[in-house]
Write a structure and sequence with these properties.
The chain is an alpha/beta fold and 134 residues long. The protein is 16% helix and 40% strand. The protein starts with 6 loop residues before the first strand and ends in a 7-residue tail after the last strand.
Length: 134
């Protein structure tokens, strides 16, 4: 069996706020929820291909205080149909812009950057032609 990345999980401060960001702005779909002792999780995925993003809200007794981003996770890539519209929607919703979408000469893509509600760096990518995995 070939290996592939299935999903990754990030800690969030406000689960419902993050679900709204990733579904209403980034266009991911909620796949399910898991409630286990001391953590509530929401699983998200795109409509076609790619891995899944899991959001986790830990009980304050397990992980108190602000989320420490450390240096392990640099950015989260999200494939979108329209980078400019997605970026504008995020900025209008109060997300901090890091880079206005621009076409990269090296690759046939338009990319933009913003911070999600918990401060994770999000790179939105609009592919010219087919997306990877399609």
């Amino acid at each position: 069996m070939a290996s592939s990345v299935g999903q990754f999980c990030i800690a969030v401060a406000d689960l419902e706020r993050s679900v709204r960001f990733y579904t209403e702005i980034m266009g991911l779909k909620e796949q399910g929820r898991t409630e286990i002792p001391n953590v509530n999780e929401v699983h998200l995925a795109g409509e076609t291909g790619g891995g899944r993003l899991q959001l986790a809200k830990f009980a304050e007794t397990i992980r108190p205080g602000a989320i420490d981003h450390g240096f392990a996770l640099w950015k989260i890539y999200i494939n979108v149909d329209d980078a400019n519209a997605t970026w504008q929607k995020a900025v209008d919703a109060g997300c901090k812009s890091v880079m206005v979408p621009a076409r990269l000469d090296r690759w046939p893509v338009i990319v933009g950057f913003m911070l999600d509600p918990d401060g994770y760096l999000i790179e939105i990518i609009q592919h010219e032609g087919k997306r990877p995995g399609e």
